[in-house]
Amino acid sequence: MSAAADYETGIDPERALKYAVQHMHGDRVEIIEGAIEPVSPTWDHEAAAEAIRDQIKPRVRELDCVTGSGNLDLPGSANWYVPDIAVVPLDVAKGGGALLPDQTLLVVEVTLESNADTDRIVKRRRYAEYGAPLHLLVDRMERSVTLFSDPGRLGYTKADGPHPFGTRLQLPAPFGIDLDTSSL
Questions:
Q1: CA–CA separation, 70 vs 75, rounded Å?
Q2: Which residues, at least 6 apart from 95, have a Cβ–Cβ distance to it below 8 Å?
């Protein structure tokens, strides 16, 4: 039994909550700071994610990785994320189940009006805390992109941006490519 378990019932609330969202029927959901949130992107949101996916896909293949929006667990917290795009080594992705942010090479979040502050603040902080090496924020409300790197327990120590849409943004190693942000 974990230290967080309820001593009267023996139930670990974090495990119970994460178990529940993994077994829900219908829409995919995330847990954001303990609140269950549906994942319901709009088509323009999906178009922005697809524009990024299309640009990085050739390099992702060269790196023997895969892109997707699979589950990311943040153990020890009431968080379970479904990023818009995550780049993960293929051998890690084949392990099944949720991954940890530090198992990714890049995590991309594209804001929706309903969750922009969550993507800008909460997820950025948590991705850094859990070691996601690169985090790209595509802020559709602000019409900007920011690349965060060098994660630590207190957040990312480097930020490249915000840059207005239309700026070419360099994705560092292992990618070493420029993103064209004009179609976002």
A1: 16
A2: none
Cβ atoms within 10 Å, residue 85 = 21
Q: Mind listing the pLDDT tens digit of every residue in the chain (184 residues)? A: 344 555 566 777 778 777 777 767 666 788 888 888 887 788 999 999 999 999 999 999 999 999 999 899 999 998 989 999 999 999 999 977 889 999 999 999 999 988 899 999 999 999 999 999 999 999 999 999 999 999 998 899 999 999 999 999 999 999 999 999 999 9
State the burial class of residue 48 (Cβ atoms within 10 Å of its Cβ: 0-12, 13-18, 19+): buried
Q: Do the beta carbons of residue 134 and residue 171 sit within 8 Å?
A: yes
Cα–Cα distance between 46 and 75 in angstroms, integer? 28
140: helix, strand or coil: coil
CATH superfamily of 42-180: tt1808, chain A (3.90.1570.10)
pTM (two decimals): 0.89
Q: Domain coordinates of the chain in residue numbers?
A: 42-180
Rg for the chain, CA atoms, rounded: 17
